[in-house]
Amino acid sequence: MIDRRRFTPDGTDHDTIVPINEFCTVPTKRMVELLAGVAGSGKSVLEIGTGSGYQTAVLAERFTDVVSIEVQSLPRVQEKLPANVTLIVADGCTYDTGQRFDAVLVTFGATEIERAWVEQVREGGTLVVPLRVGGMYQIRVYVKRDREPMRGELE
Question: How far is CA 8 from CA 43, 52, 87, in A?
């Protein structure tokens, strides 16, 4: 079990969203468990948005190989992460690792599904993204099948 206090600036374990800066938060335990559960488990996951690293560490307990992309990595995040995590500093909306993953998990509210995310999901794999629909965000789950567009959703 990951100690969430290691990832919060003040060492608190209150299960609330904890801001790190204007762009980054430590998500709640419930949110992390929901997203990790929807992504399932398997061999590999690509996380778009490392943030504090808390969710990344939770994913590393469920997946053999975790690659996490962060546009601007926070200081000392890498040293808090398990050995099966690769941290890449890049724009996760456009960066392509060249790998295909069992799951791609986007950790921020998106207004559209980026091509790079879809291309990095293996056939039969899952894309999880909080997507803006109307005036609110909904967690959407897509499964890649038969080279067709991603299908399926969870609201």
Answer: 28, 8, 19
